[in-house]
């Protein structure tokens, strides 16, 4: 479809080029936007209303675990996110789905397989994640956080103090404290440590 773009978020230029080729074969008229860090991808997702698909690597600067999926999904919930990663597919596919991804494809796949995954994502197909009771419940709570609240939570996971998080995000320390109050309520936990444990249980803050 003309007038749409596809965002490719991966820190390896050669792999971005390969994904660009695959995406262009499926949607020849689509504009390709490339990002090498999560922050750049986040800004691109916010600035381009015509994005039809996000191709996202899990392990890139600014992202740990499934934080990239969670953040981009929070910012643009209507855009399908296809995770393209070297992580173990059997576990990563289900986890990525919990945080809002519509699919997962391994970086070890051949070009035809990647193209098929891109076509499926653009067609609205999603992977199925096995139910896991309490884990899915916590994932739903994390998914309810706003992009800024997710960034504050990631700061907590990095061991940052409120004033450091405030500086990083360009907001006041009082605003960070207000966000933390909401985060604790949404996650149904009593303190920062419990919030961090809940996030880590879901793979946020874990390298892939």
Automatic annotation (TrEMBL):
Protein name as it appears in the record: Response regulator transcription factor
Pfam families: GerE (PF00196), Response_reg (PF00072)
InterPro entries xrefs: CheY-like_superfamily (IPR011006), EvgA-like (IPR051015), NreC/VraR/RcsB-like_REC (IPR058245), Sig_transdc_resp-reg_C-effctor (IPR016032), Sig_transdc_resp-reg_receiver (IPR001789), Tscrpt_reg_LuxR_C (IPR000792), WH-like_DNA-bd_sf (IPR036388)
HTH luxR-type domain sequence ranges: 138-203
UniProt xrefs under SMART domains: HTH_LUXR, REC
Alphabetically ordered keywords of this record: DNA-binding, Phosphoprotein
UniProt source species: Sphingosinicella xenopeptidilytica
Residue positions, PTM 4-aspartylphosphate: 57
CDD domains xref list: LuxR_C_like, REC_NarL-like
Phylogenetic lineage: Bacteria, Pseudomonadati, Pseudomonadota, Alphaproteobacteria, Sphingomonadales
Chain ranges of the Response regulatory domain: 5-122
